[in-house]
Amino acid sequence: MQHQNTIKWQLGKNWHQLHPNVQRRFNRLPTEQQPIIYDGVMDEVYCSGAGWLFAVLTKVIGNPLSPHRGQHIPMEVRLTTRPGQSGVYWQRTYFFPDKKPFQVTSIKKDDAGRMMEMVGGGFGMFLDVSAEDGELHFRSSRYFWKFNRWYLPLPHWLSPGATHVIHQDLGNGDFRFTISMDHRWLKRTFYQTGVFHERPN
What we know:
By secondary structure, the chain is mainly beta. It is built from 3 helices and 11 strands.
């Protein structure tokens, strides 16, 4: 099974609005034998009290949210694909001091023309992809639970909030990764930002 470059396909003609370095970064696909690995430091990893509760309650579906807070947290991001499986696996490992490494794995893939990011237990979110000022943006449009081929939309109030991810090129091989989650009533539940670079092969 071939792995489609979902991000490039979603952007279409707007792909060329991305910074050339961002294009180069996302214009290739990893494999099991040749994963793409990024090392970096999160300047800030934040969750509110409500965010912490969401993180604790979602442990049963594979730790999709970090319950820990901290500054200057080393982190590794490993991208791979798997034979016979669609999508790209994103494995994020946080190295909080005095704690076991905290690992989050999700899959970004296309489904009938829609981009989604899946975590454990059939839960995921549909993503809108855009290029803005040379940056790559992902915004969640709806959280869902997938059962077989059926998608059950989840109420917005039952989610940790609208997700917004920004990939911003900084030059010299570095880029900034920022993710925020904002709930209509609970306000900001999660925020993380840090600078990364690709690990040489």
